[in-house]
Each structure stands twice: as C-alpha cells, then as structure tokens.
C-alpha cells in the first residue's frame, strides 16, 4: 500500500473549496485537522438512525447508540495499544484530560513536591500545573530547551529528584514541531518514582502511539487533531492508577449507590465520566481512528516528512525568513518570522491568496518570550497536503514579503 493523495484528498469535502476565488490551501492542521467523509457519515448516521442516550437501554435505539459508542472506545483502545478498554476515558479534549489528572493530583501534592514541565508547553499543560502547584504549595520545575527547540537533556536529568511527583511533557511541540523522546524521558522519570503524563495533542496524528511501550501513566489527546470532531478527546491512564484516581465530576452515570447522605462510585471508565457524554463525538472519533488506522502509516509518515523537507528547504532559501524550531526530529510544523513583518500581517496576506496558516503565540506565550518574539507564523502539514501546496505557500510568502518590505 502507498499513499494515493488524489483519492485521499477526495475524501475531505472541505478541501475542494475556494477562498476568494483561489483554491483553499489548508496549512493549519496543528490547530485542527479536516474531517474525512467517513467521520462525517458516522456522525450523520448516529443522528439519523440511532440517536438516544447511552447505557440506559430499555429500547432499541439506546442499545444501538451504546453499541456504537462503546465500539468507538474499543477502536481507541486498540489504536493506542491500551491494555484494557476501561483505560480509555472520554473527555472534551486534551485540556479537559489534563485538568482531570490535575484535579486528582491536587489531593496528593504538598509542599516540597515537584511537578516538571518543559519550556515548550502549550498553555494547557502549563497553566494547569502552575495552578495546581500554587494551590498545593508544590514547586513547578521547567526544563529548559536549546535554541533549536530540543529539550536540554542534562537539565532534565538534573531537575529530576526523589521529590518529583509528576513529569508532564508534550509528545510533540505545537509551536516548534519538536518530537520529544518520550520513551526515554518516561523511563528516567520512573526511576525516580514519578508519575508521567504525556500531552499527546500533537503527537497522536503523526504516528504509532503505543502507550504500553512509552511506559507513561497518562496520555491525553483531542479528537479534532486526529481527523475527528471537536468536543471529544481521551485521557488514557493505566488502570492501576486510574482505578483509585479521585473522581472529579459527580452526577449521573458515574455512581454505584446513592442515598441522600452519601454516594459510592462506579468502576472505570464510568467513574470518571459523569453525565451524558458526547455520544456523537465519541462515535465520530471512533470512525476517525478506524479511518486513520487503515492508512499505510510508513507512507503517511514519509509523505509528511517530504512536505516538511520541501518547506524547510524553501524557507532556508527565502532571505529574511527565520525558522523557529530547527530540531532534527520534527513533525510537519514550520514556525517562522518573515523579516520584520508582524506574523498577523503575514497571515492576512496569505489568507487573501487562499493559504490558511496560524499566526500568534501558538498558545505558548512563555515559549515566545523565551525566543524574544511576539509570536510566529506557523504552517502545519497533514497527510492530505501536497508538495504543490507547499510551493503555493512559498509563492504567497514571496508576495507577502514584497508587500511588507
Ligand atoms: N497541547 C498541545 C500541544 C496542543 O497543541 C493543544 C491544542 N492546540 C492542546 C494541548 C490543547 O488541546 P485542546 O484545545 O483540543 O484541548
């Protein structure tokens, strides 16, 4: 099997549209990916054929909704190689998944404890731990990065100690594209007895995530960055850790026995999933995972690297362009500054030419400050992008450069 780009693109109805009379060149995939017809169909089919609440099955529709909803959990469990389906907890996204872990850890953290994050965090994996530390008296340790955007491994080693309760690190940086060596970082953290959470928001769509071989305790990701819908995500956690994790939201679905005075909690996964879930979202994410899994993964990865390589070469050849994030191990993310132009102006001019990129602080303000810049322009590639689109990005950038000079 290899990647048939034409038929792959044809599965994404949104890609065939025009913006201002120009073909859409969608290069904002790190913000959110587009959805294949298979995902759209799964959502439409749920609402047209079996919309009902789940786990309340006194009737056919509810049984069918429950079957599809739980089948989606099986797909996700297989996809990330969870050792049990109960380890897959539905959340609204990465942010909520990290908050779920932080809420539980808040019961354990105390003065003298340390939580480790990195300089390249998205706010979702920074502010959460910053606030948890502020509330508990624990100390937040921030692992520095090199100018290339790679983690400073010596600093990581030196910051780890017997006081480290949690190491919370991104699989892949949304702002720089850096792929972190999460397996070896996890192994080191484990030697000190720390829990490990991987922010997989950007990592999940770029390859084979095997939570058991990573060795972490938690892996969090969002459906919408993996060709699935918004409003649905996953917290994967080791059963041994999650089964005693403090419940964070209480209400229907997650209880075992309730009196007016007290309540006891159900078992995983329900004990961490209070209330009516995002049923259509979970089914849509299950369809996305099934769709993605059927692709030839080495071909997908090779294609993405080809796009990145072409973009990087053209960026290096464009005078005045400065790449932010030059680690050797990157996914298809190209963050840059164009001479003295404000990234927002660059984004605006590109948009007029049909090219969609992200501009701004990439939800990583401290990281931007670390580089002494207000933000970046960021082109991020997905499996449906073409080399011609990379060329279109650069001809649009050359125009922007002339207009802004
Ligand atoms: N972490 C990283 C690295 C991200 O890129 C994002 C999304 N930009 C998040 C966390 C948060 O994801 P969400 O907004 O889907 O919860």
UniProtKB/TrEMBL annotation:
Keyword list, A-Z: Pyridoxal phosphate, Transferase
Highest taxon above the source species: Bacteria
Catalytic activity: (sulfur carrier)-H + L-cysteine = (sulfur carrier)-SH + L-alanine
Positions of the Aminotransferase class V domain: 25-393
Classification via CDD domains: SufS_like (cd06453)
Pfam families: Aminotran_5
Family statement: Belongs to the class-V pyridoxal-phosphate-dependent aminotransferase family. Csd subfamily.
Annotated function: Catalyzes the removal of elemental sulfur and selenium atoms from L-cysteine, L-cystine, L-selenocysteine, and L-selenocystine to produce L-alanine.
Record-given protein name: Cysteine desulfurase
Species of provenance: Alteromonas salexigens
